Structures are given as structure tokens and as C-alpha cells.
């Protein structure tokens, strides 16, 4: 039901914009409107999270290791799920083999 409503909203939104504006203007309008909407959401999100304690790297790695199923990180690095490998190596400073 939620997916159907989301698709109906997107189709209705794009239909309304394309009925009123030319295709080039419609694309520009949608880009500007979505960008401003994202900026407004960001401006409302940031003040509520300013000053929150940051998670230490070790605690973050432990939390991530708990959430990622073992079958995705098992085996040699070439057989791991690519998304899991990126998560474990990007911000966390090491691969799954470093976890203990």
C-alpha cells in the first residue's frame, strides 16, 4: 500500500509539473524544488543533532560487526559482499579480518 501511494504521488507530481511547464522548465523546477526541500530538511536536522556525543571508532566497529550477518563477512576478502567490504574499510579503518 505504501509503495503504491508513493508511486501515485510521484506520477501525479510529475504529471502536474509537465502539464504546466515545458519539459526543460519542468526539469529545472523539479531540481530546484528537490534541492531546496533537501536543504530545509537538513537545516531542521542539524540543530537537533549539534553537540551530540560522537561514537568512538571501536564502539562503531563493534556495533557494525553486530549488525552485519556473519555469512556476509565470512571467507576470503574476494568472496565478501562488496557493500560490506566498503562499510568495513571506509570509515572504520580496516577490513573485517581486523575485527576481534
Shape: elongated
- Helix percent reads 55-70%
**Total count of domains:** 2
Number of helices: 5
Report strand %. Answer: under 5%
- C-alpha Rg (nearest Å): 21 Å
User: What is the N-to-C succession of helices and strands?
Assistant: HHHHH
Which secondary-structure class do the elements indicate?
A: mainly alpha
Q: Tell me the total number of β-strands.
A: 0
N→C terminal distance = 43 Å
- Mean pLDDT level: 75
Kindly summarize this structure in a few lines.
Helix content is 69%, strand content 0%. It is built from five helices and no strands. It starts with a helix and ends in an 11-residue tail after the last helix.
Can you walk me through this structure?
Helices cover 69% and strands 0% of the residues. It has 100 residues and is mostly helical. It folds into two domains: 2-49, no CATH class; 57-98, no CATH class.
Structural descriptors:
100 residues; mainly alpha; 5 helices; elongated; disordered C terminus
Provide the fold topology.
Blueprint lengths: L1 H19 L2 H27 L7 H11 L2 H4 L8 H8 L11
Helix pairs in contact: 1-2
